[in-house]
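Team,

Forwarding the record for the chain on the shared tracking sheet. I've put the sequence and predicted structure together so nobody has to dig through attachments.
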Amino acid sequence: MRSTPGHYTFAVVTMSDKGARGEREDTSGAYLKETLSAEGYVCVDYLVIPDQVDVIVKSLVELVDKKGVDLIVTTGGTGVSPTDVTPEAMDRVFEKDIPGMAEAMRSASLAKTSRAMLSRGRVGIRKTSLIVNLPGSLKASRENLDVVLPVLEHALEKIKGETSDCGAVE
């Protein structure tokens, strides 16, 4: 499903071994779906998958390459546990990194907890899609989304080829 200007499509992908087995409720994914929909984005997919590199890569590549989803917001798998492999999967998904967005999320989180420095979430582009990795907890995903939400539409416009200058907006 392709978007029309101002009506960007999105998908939420939760990386959770327990969630994929039905052993844990996906509160962060549900929150992301609700919040982005309220902001005017159009939800076209929602997945809960195991935190496994091959599964993550296959799911995200399909969402971008086959479905043309504009924005993919992932939650989970960004920490330092042995099973946290979302950043490694992004090495096979991203064509370009957007480190400033990931740094902004970590910086804002660090003001609240020193554990934020353990987050390895990334933000990047594949084709004309923006992919944002958020932490798995509801609190952290909410806080991180709040940081990037004000720039998502502008980022999508630029990724899709909008040519106006990027003037500073406060």
